[in-house]
Design goal:
With about 425 residues, the protein is an alpha/beta fold. About 45% of the residues lie in helices and about 15% in strands.
Length: about 425
Amino acid sequence: MGCRLLQCLLVGWLSLVLMGCQATVPVDGVTRITLWQGVNPPPNRAVVQGLVDRFNQTHADIQVESLYVGQADQQLPKILAAVVGNAMPDLLWFAPIMTGQLVELNALRPLDDWLMASPRRQEIDPALFEGMTLEGKIWSIPFATNNVGVFYRPSLFEAAGITQLPETWEEFRDVARRLTRDRDGDGRLDQHGILLPLGKGEWTVFSWLPFMWSGGGNLLAKPDSNQVNLPNPGAIAALQFWRDLLNDGSAVLSAPERGYEMDGLLAGKVAMQVSGPWTLAQLEASKVDFGVLPIPKQVRQASVVGGENLFLIKSTPERERAALTFMDYALSEPFQTALAIGTGYLPINMKSRESAEYQAFKAKQPAVDVFLQQAANSRSRPIFPGYNRISENLGRAIEATLLGQSTPEASLKEAQSRIDLIFAR
């Protein structure tokens, strides 16, 4: 029994050694690397796969396998398990809010030296560097960017006699009331002004943050600090604004954690919904009429920077060099132009935004201009370690307020108390 166990252990150890040797010194001269991603909806995933295929066809010595590993809430446990099990991919596609956690886990290779020596650095939208940087080091590069606006159905606006798009919170609330209607006369509302996301997840927080910033609020007590201040006046005002829309009867809540689905807007059951440019292809394919208006302004114009970054996972020098070659390709103007036109994401490469091909695309889809104009006023979510705890507790506060379980101020103060206890530990 003891000999058999020893033999199994030796075989297992030799297998690991051989696997390591194969990863470091490819027998056929080809370095194979893996990219984990959660690109959605599926048509966007097909666009990304086509771009990966193009890279593989033009790089005989490097082959990238792109694997869809689920949406953010599905990816996170897989990523953490992979870090613990030393089974990470070579490249990880994820929102930059993951940076702090991955740095704490010592999973990432910093990118400062590589990017400083690359001509691509000058081509990246300067506004995106905030989401690439933690404590003075660059830990990721932007893959694609976006922000959120308010999609609306022009035909429903016209039917309600609305000729001017709302710009302020007050105007938005008035328009939402006018868009809430009993269209068939049966005494029940069958059209609401706006869909609000119900849930504690990051999508709810992501959708709500532009309203907090618009109301003059901030998540952090001071810029560049790790001190959280949830019950600030701007946050209270933004939560009260969402609650007022519900109290007016002009807002309807999504199914739990499904606030990103566009079914209600497509069916005309809601006239407005917060979303981003990644849904443009879906809306165009549906053949329904739609437009986009900026997030309404209270104190200032604001939106939230969305999109995902590419992280370089620590491995071997050879695999890291191969991954950096793909990262350079992902930053390039041809890649970014094709990705933007195919998915609706905004190009992170400024040359791509100015290209004739992209300008022609914009001319056919004017909604893109709203997101490009909002980019200058969009802000990144904090990327320091512990953001996930902030988001989780902020999401609980938003949900409690929308369900009428607590007032905005009380919900935010309770969330702040929980965060204070977490960070104190």
